[in-house]
Amino acid sequence: MPGIEGSLRASGITRIAGVDEAGRGPCAGPLVIAAVILKDVDSPALARVRDSKALSEKVREELFDAIREEALAFEIVEISPEEIDRVGLHKSNLEGMRRAIHSLSVVPEYVLTDGYAIEGLAIPNLAVWKGDQVAISISAASILAKVYRDRIMREMEIKYPGYGFARHKGYITAAHTAALSEFGITSIHRKSFANIASLAFNK
User: Fold this and answer.
1) Which CATH class is domain 3-198?
2) Which residue from 6, 75, 179, 183 lies 20 to 30 Å from 65 (Cα-Cα)?
3) pLDDT, tens digit (0-9, with 9 covering 90-100), for 178-196
């Protein structure tokens, strides 16, 4: 087992939490953060785990269940559009990471995050550049967060028909922009994002 997790385990650290998010970029829907401690990163059940963006939706859905079964502990946290608007995206992301880590049923010995250091975390932690591509614990967290958020956005398609949330998941696309022009801003849109704020201002 090469890489960061291999080095940590070789030094006797076994409870390694990977943390990642889904939904920083969209202008609608929640930010979702997942933290996971895997029982065995070498488990054959996790052989296909990699950065969630490199996997098809079908494979991510399959791995979502596999990761939960192979997890010593996991937690998934939602940050609402209202909180994002109130405190800002970056602070929301860091706070979501803290909540996910502190909510784990097993206390990790070490935390690996994808690119963002968690200020003030008492547990030793490391921000890993492109972590969802090099650390399986972070990759697993990215899958949990992505699948969970995609499911929410498919539900939002039913609640807010016509916006296409099941397709674009809240990212700004031509179809999403057209729907906003036709139907207006919903309660799940992030009012602090420039494109949404502009629409509100021009009303």
Assistant:
1) alpha beta
2) 6
3) 999 999 999 999 999 999 9
